[in-house]
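Q: What would this chain look like folded?
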Amino acid sequence: MPMPDDTPAQVQVDQAIDWLVKLRFDSPSARTEQQFQQWLGSHPHNPLAWQRVSHLSDELAGLPKDLSRRTLEGSQRQRVSRRDHLKLLGLLAVGGSLGWAAREPLGLPQLLADSSTATGERRQWQSTDGSRIQLNTASAIDLHFSAQQRQLELIRGEISLDSNPNDNRPFHIDTRIGPLTTVDGQLLLRENSQGLLLSVRRGEVTLFPASAPPRQVLPGETLQVGTNGSIQALALHSDPWGWTDGVLSVQQMPLAEFVSELGRYRPGLLRCAPEVAALKVSGTYQLGDTEQILQLLSRSLPVRVDYRTRYWVSIGAA
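A: My prediction, written as C-alpha cells:
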C-alpha cells in the first residue's frame, strides 16, 4: 500500500490539472513542453500527481472539447478540495462516461478503497475466505464478505480472482459494465476505454451486462464487453494473464500498442513516434524493470529511446 508521504499535495494536483489543460487541450509550444519537463523534475511527487491526473483526459475525451477544458480549468482556478474534485467528476458523469472513475479521479484509492496499487505496483494476497486476489498496476477494489455472500467491487484497473471453490457462498463482482457472479471461478477483469476485458480460466462465471441478457462465460474465453452490453471474443497480441506472473508476454504486437501497454507500469509520459508505430514486438519482458525493457527494444528494433527527462520518454526511428 502507498504510504501517506507518497501522496501528492493539493497544490501539486492543481498544478498537474493546469498542465493537463495546457498540453492536452491547447497546442503547446516547445517552450511550454520545456517548462513542463522542468516542473516534472522539480519535486518527486510531481510525476505521481501528473500520472494520476492525466488519466482524466482519457475520460474527458467523450465530452465536448470546450466543456472538458472549462471543467479542468475551473477545478484549477477555484482551488477546490480533493472531496470537491470527486464531486466535480461525479457531476461530469451525467454528461459523459465518468461514473466508474469518480471514485479515484485524482489517484487516491488508499483513502477510498479497501485495497489498491500505485502505478507500477502489483499486489497479491489470500482473502479471509481463502480466495487468491491479485491487483495489477494502478488498481483498486472494495471487498464485502457476509454470512450469505462474498462481494468484490472493481473500482479501477485490473484484477485476477481465484475463488476458493470450497466456500459455497456466491462470489459477486461489481464492475461498471454490470455484475458477474461465480462460486469456483478463476477469472481476470480489466477495465479499459471500451468497457471491460474478461478472461476465464476455470469454473462457472455468469456475466450480467447492462441492457443485455446474462451470458455464461466458459473457461478459455476472453471477451471484450462494451458499456452497452455488447460482447466480442478477442484474439490478442498478448497474454492477458502474463502480469500475474510479473511479465508482459506479446506476439507480433504493434510497437504503438506495446508502448501504450508498457506505459501503464511507468510514471510520466511514454510516447511512440508514428513512423515506428507499426513495428512488431515479440517476447516476454519482466515488468519489474521497465528501463531494461526500453533498452531491449532499442537493441531488437530499429528504434531510438530518447529521454527528455526520467519521466518523459520518446521512442523514434534510429
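The domain at 113-233 is CATH 2.60.120.1440 (Jelly Rolls).
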